[in-house]
Design goal:
The chain has about 625 residues and is an alpha+beta fold. The protein is built from 24 helices and 19 strands.
Length: about 625
């Protein structure tokens, strides 16, 4: 049948007042539920231990679950599933293995020095986990037992893990706690981050050149093309032959029944007989008297309708009714539709009380007769009929392919389109490649794959065959001429602007006024993280490398300019922003010191205890992911 294609090491952290937030095990429970046990209980012919740190064993399942968790997190981060092979290229497996080794080293040390917690603490942690709560929002023992059994965990194993996690957090908190950023370091970094600078900026564009750019010669284009051939080379492509049966091709052959067509028109009469409408705003008052008084002031010219809206504490968006029919307005419809041109009607009764209605535009009635709608409705019915007809032929085409017929034979026998395209993953999205299902199938297509029918989202059918992999191929100059010309011009303009900016720099350094060469923008007291709109990205970075009075040329896309540093201002020391900056830097420095200390500590623990890794067990886990 048709198929429808459609730094992870543990970060040191302080132990909080309540040890109850045992993040590792909460995440583990959620991962277990999603994995359904994952099926990693018998690697390497019964091997269950993947590594050992001192007296602490790392089980195969623990590593597999941690690896799956990080793979899921990475996929969620990029918004699409990440193959394990790609994750390995990122070093994910190495990071996860280091994480579980670090965790085991901490467990080993906690056991060695006798850190442990009582049953009451463990029970408190488990009963607070949402995964084990019933419909009443309290701990449900049956749910607890079922979840553990489903994932090949006993209560003793899980509770032992919770106990170890709490003990580990106590040890970890002892290592990372108590660090404080040295005052000299905090003050130095704050002075650097908070330093401000004032500068003047002269932007130069093509209009500021002494002479316009010359047109490129054929030799210029050839030289640019040769020097940048990578930019004018088609990426590697899959040459794919495909057959397709599309509704729009089959639709003209479909018959349309006149009675059915008229029934469809009657069913959708609201689309074809649209009554006159008006763009209306409604301003409601508590009483009729207040509405009448407002209307009197409006008629006397004392206020405008907008003034009345503001007096009621409203905005125009809040009172806008959009386009409404006479029936939509109820009792006020008669008054509003009596207006022959934009104006104010009322007071009139509305669902919310007496109101003034401002009519802003008249939208004429739209009446489409059956004869006028016939062509549109006929086309829709034919396409719908074509989709049904195509759907009924799936088995027929499947059978032809299954019998060994190639795409050319199937196309001829089934009356399908036959074509070839060079598909570039991530780029080709025209014609039939505009269908997401076709692109998905094309990207998955491998040499030797048997053609299968895929159903596209509008009911179309297709089947694909990979003919060959087309290597990267240069686009001929004549075909790429427009892009080459554009690239040459951008490069020539950048060089001309840089030359002009250097000339202006020499003249300004000799005493000329910066303002004599164009409009100068003066910016006061910016910090290193400032963003300047319509300026090169390197402008602020350059400003913070200059000494007072220095000039520098800065280039960007399609422009270049001259910047002069006018003043260097120290970081502010008072005010909320200054205090927040200092505190933020102090916290980050403290965290960095704690992280470094924790890393040194865990490395020392691992080295002292000794690490033994069963690479065959590691490979067995990886094989389950490939």
């Amino acid at each position: 049948m048709a198929k429808k294609t459609t730094d992870s090491e543990e970060q040191p952290r302080k132990k909080k007042t309540s040890i109850g937030n045992i993040i590792v095990w909460i995440l583990l429970v959620l991962v277990m539920i999603g994995l359904g046990g994952f099926g990693v209980t018998n690697f390497g012919g019964g091997v269950t231990t993947l590594a050992r740190v001192g007296d602490r064993e790392i089980e195969v399942n623990d590593y597999a679950r941690a690896l799956q968790q990080e793979l899921n997190a990475l996929s969620a981060q990029v918004g699409q599933p990440i193959p394990f092979s790609q994750a390995q290229a990122f070093g994910l497996d190495t990071q996860v293995l280091q994480t579980v080794i670090t965790r085991a080293a901490l467990d080993n040390e906690a056991a060695r020095i006798g850190i442990s917690v009582g049953d009451a603490t463990v029970a408190g942690e488990i009963t607070q986990m949402q995964a084990f709560q019933g419909t009443a929002g309290t701990f449900d023992r049956d749910a607890y037992r079922f979840t553990l059994e489903r994932n090949d965990l006993t209560e003793a194993q899980f509770e032992s893990g919770i106990r170890e996690d709490v003990a580990r957090s106590i040890l970890q908190g002892a290592v990372v706690g108590g660090f404080a950023a040295p005052q000299a370091l905090t003050e130095t970094l704050t002075a650097y981050a908070g330093e401000r600078r004032s500068y003047s900026w002269l932007a130069l564009t093509e209009a500021d050149l002494p002479a316009p750019l010359a047109e490129p010669t054929e030799a210029d284009l050839q030289a640019f093309y040769d020097a940048n051939i990578a930019d004018f080379t088609k990426a590697e492509a899959k040459r794919i032959t495909y057959i397709a049966l599309l509704p729009e091709k089959l639709a003209p052959t479909m018959e349309v029944d006149e009675a059915t067509l008229r029934d469809l028109y009657d069913q959708r009469i609201g689309e074809f007989m649209i009554p006159e409408k008006r763009l209306v705003e409604r301003l409601v008052y508590p009483t009729e008297a207040e509405a009448q008084a407002a209307r009197a002031r409006l008629d006397a010219g004392e206020v405008t309708f907008d003034d009345l809206v503001a007096e009621r504490g409203l905005t125009l968006d809040a009172i806008d009714l959009g386009d409404v029919s006479k029936a939509d307005l109820g009792a006020a419809g008669e008054a509003v539709f009596a207006l022959a041109e934009p104006g104010v009607a009322g007071p009139a009764l509305s669902d919310f009380g007496p109101a003034l209605f401002r009519m802003n535009a008249i939208l004429a009635a739209q009446e489409t007769t059956f004869d006028a709608a016939r062509e549109t409705l006929s086309a829709e019915m034919r396409v719908a009929a074509a989709r049904r007809a195509i759907g009924s032929r799936i088995d027929e085409i499947d059978d032809l392919l299954a019998s060994g017929a190639d795409l050319e034979e199937v196309a001829q026998e089934a009356g399908m389109d036959l074509a070839t395209l060079d598909y570039i993953p991530g780029e080709t999205a025209e014609g039939i490649a505009a269908y997401p299902e076709f692109r998905e199938a094309a990207e998955a297509l491998q040499d030797g794959d048997f053609p299968e029918v895929i159903q596209l989202d509008d009911g179309a059918l297709a089947a694909l065959r990979l003919d060959e992999i087309v290597p990267p191929t240069p686009i001929p100059l004549d075909e790429a001429r427009d892009a080459v010309t554009e690239g040459w011009r951008a490069e020539a303009l950048a060089k001309a602007l840089a030359t002009r900016a250097e000339a202006v720099k020499i003249e300004v350094a000799a005493g000329a006024s910066l303002g004599a060469y164009g409009i100068v923008t003066v910016t006061r007291a910016v910090t290193r993280d400032a963003f300047v709109e319509d300026a090169p990205a390197a402008l602020i970075e350059t400003v913070f490398t200059l000494a007072e009075g220095d000039l520098a040329v800065v280039q960007g896309d399609g422009l270049a300019g001259l910047v002069r540093l006018d003043a260097i201002l120290p970081a502010e020391t008072e005010g909320e922003d200054a205090i927040a900056l200092r505190e933020g830097i102090s916290i980050r420095a403290q965290q960095t010191l704690a992280q470094d200390a924790f890393q040194i500590f865990t490395n020392a623990l691992s080295n002292e205890a000794g690490i033994q890794i069963d690479q065959s067990a590691v490979n067995a886990v990886h094989a389950q992911f490939n």
